[in-house]
């Protein structure tokens, strides 16, 4: 009679080609619930020819992870060409990127802090630090982990000559211009390869997500990677919602915090954020974002599967139901149904930062003010 296999460390079981590749690259790998990418350790990364590291968030799921590249003053990366998609957010510094398209042309664009761009699939590119004094730090959210685990062949990923001219976009997509695709609030899209400044990019109102918020969805390099930018006005917060793993949330402007919890949890998990911090809510974990700064707060979310190419049934459900109440089969908790503690925590945080609440139009704050008065007596 055969004995059951109980040794899960067997060399032929439960393989993770991406994890093995990542460990073999020899650079620091930082793992946590939320990570300050401006502070993660880096080391020489021969593949890119600059210092770098990896950030593996607890809620990253099976599709994406982050590379951090630290480019010294006046330096440049080794030219890259690969069969995975990436969306690059500029954490600090100024520089440029040159992309070679299949028609033989070179497209160059200059970027600075809070720029966003995507590299067309398998097009050759190179990053340059244009400063003679300051380092440049880039965060690449990419789907290499999915591609390596699917094909488990590095040659296919990094030495593939196949070209995708339909993904490269027009010349204006490399210059910061784009095309607005009107759909409806929360689904309006901007198609481009490059956004010069996420902090000043024009957004469209999305009232259904709460408290005067605004948003824009991006289609970048006609890829399957998703990105969107959202803004919360001063003294406000978004409605709670949930979705699958892999949405990587980057703080862009302002400061605040997010609460995360599963449906039956008694306590919240809290992540405080400011520019440089990224976190990823785990699969189906409710989360809610709060602005405590004296200016509007913006955040960037990057994931795999977007409005144009959702890729999975789960992502399709998210994009259809992200502003629909969970009571109606969607993903969102309306203000009137949220845990009462949520608003109390928010008012306490605003008081600590000396900022007024602008939520009176959406929530009756009378009970909270009475509680605060009683506590002060």
Summarize the structure in words.
This protein has about 375 residues and is α+β, with helices and mostly antiparallel strands. The protein has a domain at about 15-165: Jelly Rolls (Sandwich), CATH 2.60.120.10. Helix content is about 15%, strand content about 35%. The protein contains six helices and 25 strands. It has helices spanning about 15-25, 145-150, 155-160, 315-320, 340-355, 365-375, and strands at about 30, 35, 45, 50-55, 65-70, 85-90, 95-100, 105-110, 115-120, 125-130, 135-140, 180, 190, 195, 205, 215-220, 225-230, 240, 250-255, 255-260, 270-275, 275-280, 285-290, 295-305, 330-335. The chain starts with 16 loop residues before the first helix and ends with a helix.
Compact overview of the structure:
The chain has helices at 17-24, 144-151, 154-158, 313-321, 340-353, 366-376; strands at residues 29-32, 34-36, 43-45, 50-57, 65-71, 86-92, 95-100, 106-111, 116-118, 124-129, 136-142, 179-181, 189-192, 194-195, 204-205, 214-220, 225-232, 240-241, 248-253, 256-261, 269-273, 277-279, 286-291, 297-304, 332-333.
What CATH architecture of the domain at 17-167 would you give?
Sandwich
Secondary structure class reads alpha+beta
Count of discrete alpha- or pi-helical segments spanning 4 or more residues: 6
Percent of residues in beta strands:
25-35%
Count of distinct strands: 25
Please tell me how large the radius of gyration is: 22 Å
- Uncertain stretches: none
Oligomer: single chain
In CATH terms, the superfamily of the domain at 17-167 is Jelly Rolls
């Amino acid at each position: 009679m055969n004995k059951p296999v109980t040794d899960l460390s067997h060399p032929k079981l439960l393989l993770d080609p991406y994890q093995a590749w990542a460990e073999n690259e020899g650079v620091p790998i930082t793992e946590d619930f939320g990570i300050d990418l401006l502070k993660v350790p880096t080391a020489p990364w021969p593949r890119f020819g600059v210092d770098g590291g990896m950030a593996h968030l607890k809620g990253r799921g099976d599709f994406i992870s982050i590379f951090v590249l630290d480019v010294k003053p006046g330096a440049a990366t080794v030219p890259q060409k690969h069969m995975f998609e990436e969306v690059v957010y500029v954490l600090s510094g100024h520089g440029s990127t040159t992309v070679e398209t299949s028609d033989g042309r070179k497209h160059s664009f200059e970027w600075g802090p809070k720029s966003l761009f995507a590299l067309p699939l398998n097009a050759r590119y190179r990053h340059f630090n244009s400063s003679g004094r300051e380092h440049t730090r880039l965060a690449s959210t990419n789907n290499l982990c999915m591609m390596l685990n699917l094909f488990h062949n590095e040659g296919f990923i990094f030495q593939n000559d196949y070209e995708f001219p339909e993904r490269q976009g027009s010349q204006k997509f490399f210059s910061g211009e784009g095309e607005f695709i009107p759909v409806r609030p929360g689904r309006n899209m901007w198609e481009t390869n490059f956004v010069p400044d996420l902090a000043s990019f024009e957004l469209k109102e999305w009232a259904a997500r709460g408290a005067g918020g605004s948003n824009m969805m991006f289609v970048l390099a006609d890829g399957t990677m998703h990105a969107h930018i959202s803004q919360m006005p001063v003294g406000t917060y978004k409605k709670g919602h949930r979705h699958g793993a892999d949405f990587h949330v980057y703080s862009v402007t302002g400061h605040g915090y997010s609460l995360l919890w599963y449906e039956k949890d008694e306590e919240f998990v809290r992540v405080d954020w400011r520019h440089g911090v990224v976190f990823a809510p785990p699969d189906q974990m409710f989360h809610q974002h709060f602005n405590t700064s004296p200016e509007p707060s913006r955040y960037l979310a990057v994931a795999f599967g977007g409005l144009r190419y959702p890729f999975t049934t789960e992502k399709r459900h998210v994009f259809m139901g992200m502003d629909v109440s969970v009571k109606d089969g969607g993903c969102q908790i309306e203000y009137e149904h949220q845990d009462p503690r949520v608003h109390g925590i928010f008012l306490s945080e605003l008081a600590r930062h000396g900022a007024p609440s602008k939520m009176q139009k959406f929530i009756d704050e009378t009970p909270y003010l009475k509680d605060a008065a009683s506590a002060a007596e």
